[in-house]
Write a structure and sequence with these properties.
4 copies of one chain form a homotetramer. Chain A is about 30% helix and about 20% strand. Chains in contact: A-B, A-C, A-D, B-C, B-D, C-D.
């Protein structure tokens, strides 16, 4: 971290600042220019509050050279993290295919879909039980009952299950869930993140609707700071002014995150566009960009799905997508 | 709600759709054009899931004519809601001035600031005890201890207190808090909103960093759906690509929300820009735009504040801002 | 186009509106609901000014069902347009690879790079002569001299050339340019677009920094309205709040535009991220998404390039990217 | 400007960089830290291409301490610029009120409106003759005929006139125009800006739809670099994801620009929201924020205006707004 001191600041004030910084376990190297004094902060600067520093009247500007995240940082952990989801590996060359309906609706539905996507190569089964909806009047999911049905599908097919948590108080219900998803709207629900840091289960952390990659990694850092380092990041589109697509899938996040962090990076092409026929090309593009896996909505009756039907694939369409993605992965 | 059916859809499919819609307590008026069939949905359409409808294969487009929010909608409640915060009225012509430090730091600090801002005309005292921070390594507030100090300042000065909640499990600690704040990052923490709908205390609901006014009102609707109708909305700046200011204060939200809803609308000019000297002009502009109140950060020692010091005013600066705002309010 | 009339509007006013609309070569089908009157506009509605219509006091809402673009619309021209750039076909299955330096710097530089990229499979040579720069003090390109050097490289290698125009008055200088590029900042320079509609040379139209696909297609429509239908669209990243990448490459634009328009869609992965090592994965992802071509910056000495060096590839890196893209294209 | 060199870079490479920088009329102060070498660039750094510098392989990061704009920079010209528009002063305490129709439609229309707005206190008359429209099929203005009608209204009322230019080739037609407007979509039409730098007429430079204040000031700098320093900036709303308002008026730009530049800053509340009844509160807010003037659309028959009718005020409404703004200005 480099802090440039304003011109004309008295020596004693700079000394005070240096002393204060050194109490925070960094050492400070001072270099005097003709116009400005520049302080170089050396050591573990993740604990230095950059906003606070910038706010000081005597400071002109502060530049972070190292990233504010540490546990998630590839610089300190060069080797790819491989997350183990009840036997299914994700990351470090292991490609995961999560598939299933937006919402769990019935026993028949979830088991039928589970069987079909498994046959097409899906390795993990998704299904929403607790659904975050913008309107309090929209369908909110089957809740605990939905979780039960998911577990039945798991028993029936042997596929590990993935589902979203919205409230840390629900954690006891998630005992048999293999991969716990944090949705976009909860990416900065820091209280939830802290609780998930205390458990020892893999977390699928979706990117917030309007969050930067740095904020996303800081949210991963919240979980990791608690000791839970089994995190998979999942890009699902960000908000822009474009209206033809629901969100703008940011595939450049895949190579950029692979540079910044050792955590696996998946892509959800279904939610990003919100459009059925865009899932295939975007799934292929995600694979080509180097994603460690895909999360795709599949429904056996998309026209009557209780939510997000328009973006769901039929099992036949999913089968085609899975094949194409395989070809792409062989080509790269 | 107007739904346009695609060309060439067989009558029986349209009949099925109409029947299904009529089970949802709306009546459907059907009009046959040369090219398209248009369905007009009449009645309470807040419970019709517009995404679901749009997703149906036979539907070309759906246009909501009435808003998806109902309890918060001015059309159904033309009279301004006046929120009563332990005797301090907000809305319907009653202007509130919330002031205080970003974080509660010590007994002396909070009581000293409380006395000073009260003298300058502040009607409510703010102070953060639980602080949402992007980094797990940054100062997270004094938590329960901070709440205790706030309550002491309330006892000492008689000012009702405002502070942020981040976790519904903390509600018992908020017994003596007069106005509970939901921060930007929790605006779509639906589980928290539902819990706040069950209590009978006024809520200050801040706008999310990248949320539309419709989503904001839907979040208010979540609280109101639970029976708690004492809500104050607070604009605090949205995320844009501008970098000179931290966020872009959207003052057009003030007149627009006054049109859409009967709830009071306040403005926080401190967080929006993140810059001390911008608070005054933006506070004046907010008052001129018709805001029902302001929320301003004041610190007796901004240079050493533990967070957000650069945007805090000194008590003297706050006194000046309060006077200017008063002049503006007299002029409108 | 569907226009919903407000409740309680007198018949005569609706009659007036219908008459006025019918003077604009659309026929109007009127259907009377219990609450609202709905007007269905049938025929060529591209000439109906939707903003004007929405502004009328008696109109509740207007929904466009057909797109406002016509010449660019796939509905009216289902077959892919194949643009012929002096013998190099683009679109309809023909994949174009444009490569070359950001700026033409010298005779040696441009000829050397041209030879190298040709060997690696590039089909068109790019090189900036007129450079749009945010600052008036930055290098603005070699102008007419740069164009001359480009032409020499064309003579030497036989590759058709692509370069950006910033001023319609420069058109005489572009006589020997094979594909004229309109940069992001001029996407809505309507006066320039009109002039380009009058010539008969292929145009490479880049997406504006913060423009929607609809606006982009309307800009293509400006050129096509003048009679020039040889247009290639080029996605180059849009502005978001993300800061790790310079812009956010919107690859979902590729399949979406293929649905909306018959024009070829290329992708520029160099400008989008601004980072050398992101070009390869994003080029592969663009190919997987179905792009009709790529535009890639190559420099034989990226470290000393006069502009945008950090995003340029070396000829060796370009050779690798070209090979990978070929593999991806074979896989899809 | 502070450039931090990467760790482990050999001395000779740093020497080369220092030598190269010193050829660009800056002096370089070098300070050696434990980990990094920091170069402080002193002198006029506006000509240093920061992108180029950042792109060098040996450079870790570059931070601009001084702004990249110079002529527009308040640091070098602390006194407010007062622009003289044919006798009407703008800036430095002089408040301008520009009013008139979106488009000039007829002799009667423009003269009638001119008389009415003059009576209400407008000091400058606006009216569009060349209209930038997203669609080539929408009304594009009366062009040269519109300019003639504007001039007649000027003769009749004595009010200086303001109108938009879209093409530098039209400049001869603008001989009698008193203030030439550059619209949002041409803010980065650098060729047009350069031409406007060569004339000696005041320019009203609107902010681009998605441009930062820094880019906006760099565009002013383009004009000033040519020797034309009579520039008025005009905020007109930026693009966000909000949909209730057409654009988001960024009033924080007013105090921020007053800090950054000596140029006057006006606000256009009509285009920002696109809604008639929002003009009044936003005009008042702009005045309270310290704007140097307002630009307001007025039409004597808004319902039949050829463009943007919904955002125009009637002359009576304008009279009311002008009075309110006067009260606000007296209060601040």
């Amino acid at each position: 971290m480099i802090a440039v001191i304003k011109q004309g600041v008295p020596e004693t004030q700079i000394d005070n600042l240096v002393n204060w910084l050194e109490t925070q376990s960094v050492s400070v190297h001072r270099s005097q220019g003709v116009y400005n004094t520049v302080l170089g902060l050396v050591g573990d600067t993740t604990h230095v509050d950059i906003e606070l520093l910038q706010n000081l009247e005597i400071v002109e500007t502060v530049t972070r050279i190292s990233e504010p995240f540490k546990s998630a940082n590839r610089k300190f952990h060069p080797k790819d993290t491989v997350v183990d989801v009840s036997g299914v590996k994700v990351g470090g060359g292991h490609f995961a295919m999560i598939a299933g309906p937006c919402s769990v609706e019935s026993r028949e539905q979830i088991i039928e879909i589970a069987k079909q996507v498994k046959q097409s190569g899906a390795t993990l089964l998704r299904g929403g039980a607790f659904k975050p909806r913008t309107s309090p009047y929209d369908f909110q999911g089957l809740a605990a009952d939905g979780l039960e049905l998911l577990k039945e599908a798991k028993k029936e097919t042997g596929m590990p299950i993935v589902t979203e948590i919205m409230n840390a108080n629900h954690l006891p219900l998630f005992e048999d869930v293999d991969l716990i998803q944090v949705g976009a709207r909860n990416m900065q629900n820091f209280e939830l993140l802290k609780e998930l840091g205390r458990i020892r289960k893999p977390i699928l952390l979706k990117r917030g609707l309007a969050n930067t990659m740095k904020e996303w990694l800081m949210s991963a850092e919240y979980i990791m700071a608690g000791g839970n380092e089994q995190i998979i990041l999942c890009e699902r589109g960000i908000r822009t002014y474009e209206t033809y697509t629901r969100n703008t899938l940011d595939l450049s996040a895949v190579p950029m995150l692979h540079e910044l962090t050792h955590l696996p990076v998946m892509v959800d092409p279904s939610h990003a566009s919100g459009i059925n026929w865009m899932v295939k090309p975007m799934a292929m593009a995600a694979a080509a960009a180097g994603a460690d896996g895909l999360m795709i909505e599949v429904h056996n009756d998309p026209k009557h799905a209780l939510c997000d039907g328009a973006q769901s694939l039929t099992p036949e369409q999913f089968d085609d997508v899975a094949k194409r993605v395989k070809h792409i992965r062989e080509a790269i």
